[in-house]
Amino acid sequence: MKILIVNTSDTQGGAARAAYRLHTALLAQDVDTQMLVLNKSSDDYRVIAQQRKITKYFNRLRPLIDSLAVRFYKERSKALFSPSWFGFSNIVDKINEINPDIVHLHWICGGMIRVQDLARIKAPIVWSLHDNWAFTGGCHIMWECQKYKDECGACPRLRSNKENDLSKRVFKKKQKAFGLKKDMTIVGLSRWLNDCSKSSTLLKEKKHVDLPNPIDTKTFKPFNKEKARELWNLPQDKKLVLFGANSATNDINKGFKELKDALKMLKDRDIEFVIFGSSKPKSAPDFGFKTHYLGHLHDDVSLVTLYSAVDVMVVPSLQEAFGQTASEAMACKTPVVAFGHSGLLDIVDHKQNGYLAKPFESEDLACGIEWVLNTSNYDKLCTDAREKVLREFDSVVVAGKYIKLYKEILR
């Protein structure tokens, strides 16, 4: 069985890390697996990318070129919108040249593949959805919009009032391509995302499977808290609250605004706040207690020691396909507070391994943080958090389910 995992990058970004983890988990189960990417950062010889300097430089320009059509919408929101019309990367030709038994797509935007070229892939497709893009007219985060259930147009993300706008044209291209590509199986990383996809016009006719991102629990495991705090130069005598993601304080979807409001409501002042994924801004907010800005982290060891150093991880995202940082923290025995919404519903069990606040109420988020920090049941919360990850998200468990799916498709 020969599997080709396709993602824009191999290690940069949440979807890339998830795809690469699946790649390594499958290799550990003796599955013949390769990755095909536009931008390669690792030295893994099983990750294929074009190595010529001019090609590497051109690949960096692809997201910019692909976004040109979006730039005509001057009033658009800051949320990412991908038309995927730019397709001179010959990725599909490379896929067919490799000739795998199954092509496993992950995040393929940023000018990697034209929508219409998906129909040219010869092998059956398994597609793990990391956001809403596959079943919308181009937006990655749909929030309250329900147009994907019918037909896009007059897109709220583009702030367009025209029915025949860019979202409608992208929608039509997808509709044609997906209609031609019959052997496509959709994997939702959470029950919520799967339900969204199954209710969409574009993908409702496809087979759907609910499978999470894998976590290597031999890497993501508890580390001595005192030593972890010493490594990060964090205080031993404070309750530490952690928040982090790529562009943690700038990405509106990560819920930093809601978290800021919640922190100001905390009655317990014996707290310090820790942020990764962002450097200290010029005008840093004052929460009334010390804040540590750790910048961007680039390796799993740093994440493990940081998760182990703190008392609670807060994931206040407005929408999550899965919630990778939540599962990573829980694997390190750190309880998670999150809004009870989207993919996080599959990860956090209310008052069993964390706290699910009412969406999107900062006051209840603050209640959740204080409940976790002060509950007499804290040690059990920590133990149950790791047990949940071992049971449902461990890389061996998830890889086994993917292998079963691949075999079913090939039969």
From TrEMBL:
Membrane spanning residue stretches? none
| Name the record gives this protein | Glycosyl transferase family 1
**Source species, domain of life:** Bacteria
Q: Which InterPro entries match?
A: Glyco_trans_1 (IPR001296), Glyco_trans_4-like_N (IPR028098)
- UniProt-listed PANTHER family: GLYCOSYLTRANSFERASE, GLYCOSYLTRANSFERASE EPSF-RELATED
- Per the database record, which ranges form the Glycosyl transferase family domain? 225-380
Domain (Glycosyltransferase subfamily 4-like N-terminal) ranges: 13-195
Q: Name one GO molecular function term.
A: glycosyltransferase activity
Q: Which CDD domains match?
A: GT4_WcaC-like
